[in-house]
Amino acid sequence: MGYRFSDLTDACQQDWRAYLEHDFVRALGAGRLDEDAFRHYLQQDYLFLVHFSRAYALAAYKSQTLAELRHAFEGLKTILDVELDLHVGYCREWGIGEDDLAALPEARATLAYTRYVLDTGCRGDLLDLHVALAPCLIGYGEIANWLNAQASTVRGAANPYDAWIAMYEGDAFQAAMHEERAWLDARLAEVTPERFARLTTIFRDATRLEIDFWQMGLDRAD
Ligand SMILES: Cc1ncc(C[n+]2csc(CCO)c2C)c(N)n1
């Protein structure tokens, strides 16, 4: 007993590194990612964020305390008022209008990932749901930090994806990532080895679905 978040990443190190260091991420960092691949990713990520908002609503439903309910409410509010607005604005800069977003067909990788998270949350408790969300919430912050540590990463106007990296390295996002880590560390400290094994399966599944999401972008898969 006495687990923490890093025990989850240690338990599936290979999948975790494959997600953080995916070819999509490397190409984005080097500024050589195909623009249509990025556009496809941005469109599907809009759908991802819509379902992600529903997962926060599910976290509210699964809350046992007022503090948990407030936490879920703040998360839902941030994603609706901040993340989705930012994303819609960013899509516009890439030539994707709001009408396009409203009419998007959902790719299989988006369907699989988002519904997996929602189903895991429905079946389990708040900790199961947070562990299913952790690759998303914590992974992107780690990706920005990993990219900044690579000599191949190009920053500034020479990289058309610089704003994407800037968003996830920013203080607001990094603070949210640390808060989520601390929440998970506190909860994981209490779980039995049997429960930890089940949580590892959820974390690994969600990490592999993130890998598929990157690959869907690269392949422009529907
Ligand atoms: C496939 C996919 N996975 C993770 C994220 C990252 N992300 C989505 S919402 C959120 C925090 C909300 O407050 C973060 C970090 C993404 N955009 N798309």
UniProtKB/TrEMBL annotation:
Catalytic activity: 4-amino-5-aminomethyl-2-methylpyrimidine + H2O = 4-amino-5-hydroxymethyl-2-methylpyrimidine + NH4(+); thiamine + H2O = 5-(2-hydroxyethyl)-4-methylthiazole + 4-amino-5-hydroxymethyl-2-methylpyrimidine + H(+)
Function of the molecule: Catalyzes an amino-pyrimidine hydrolysis reaction at the C5' of the pyrimidine moiety of thiamine compounds, a reaction that is part of a thiamine salvage pathway.
Name the UniProt record assigns to this protein: Aminopyrimidine aminohydrolase
Classification via Gene3D superfamilies: Heme oxygenase-like
Keyword Hydrolase in record: yes
Known pathway: Cofactor biosynthesis; thiamine diphosphate biosynthesis
UniProt superkingdom: Bacteria
Keywords on record: Hydrolase, Thiamine biosynthesis
Classification via PANTHER family: BIFUNCTIONAL TH2 PROTEIN (PTHR43198), SI:CH1073-67J19.1-RELATED (PTHR43198:SF2)
Keyword Isomerase assigned: no
